[in-house]
Specification:
Elements: H1 2-26, E1 29-36, E2 40-42, E3 57-69, E4 87-95, E5 101-110, E6 115-123, E7 130-136, E8 142-151
Antiparallel strand pairs: 1-8, 2-7, 3-6, 3-8, 4-5, 4-7
């Protein structure tokens, strides 16, 4: 009796483990990593593309953290005043046949200390290459570290 219970317990754990592995393999993800020292971090210009099929639900999420500040890099506005903290836009695009990008999803954060979380969802239209395009309107002097995940 005790032996059969042990065998049943081992079988149950094995079946659960196999089921969980099967579910895990259906979900895929890629890492987002980069440092924004100026205004733009362009995945297409840096040849950093993600392969994600057509009609896929996609989520980008992660954090943007201040890692430095250089007051000599702060740009001035049209009135000659140094700009304040700028909004950082985090966008996932997919290339089109014309070479331009279609935005799949986007979020924005403002970081002058510590870190802020970002998260956005969207759906791919085609199976063309995907890339992150991260930017600020003007250089505010804050150096940022971006870490996250693209889940699909």
């Amino acid at each position: 009796m005790k032996i059969s219970r042990k065998i049943l317990s081992v079988l149950a754990v094995t079946v659960c483990s196999i089921s969980l592995l099967g579910i895990d393999s259906l979900a895929a993800s890629s890492r987002i990593r980069g440092t924004l020292n100026y205004r733009v971090l362009d995945g297409s210009a840096n040849n950093k593309f993600y392969t994600i099929g057509a009609n896929k639900s996609i989520k980008i999420s992660g954090s943007v953290e201040k890692i430095g500040y250089n007051k000599n890099e702060v740009e001035t506005n049209a009135y000659g005043q140094k700009v304040g903290v700028q909004t950082t836009y985090l966008n996932l695009y997919e290339k089109t046949l014309s070479g331009r990008g279609n935005k799949i999803c986007s979020d924005s954060v403002k970081v002058s200390s510590g870190s802020k979380q970002f998260s956005a969802t969207g759906k791919s239209k085609n199976s063309n290459k995907k890339y992150m395009y991260i930017y600020k309107g003007m250089n505010d002097g804050y150096d940022l570290s971006i870490n996250g995940t693209i889940s699909y």
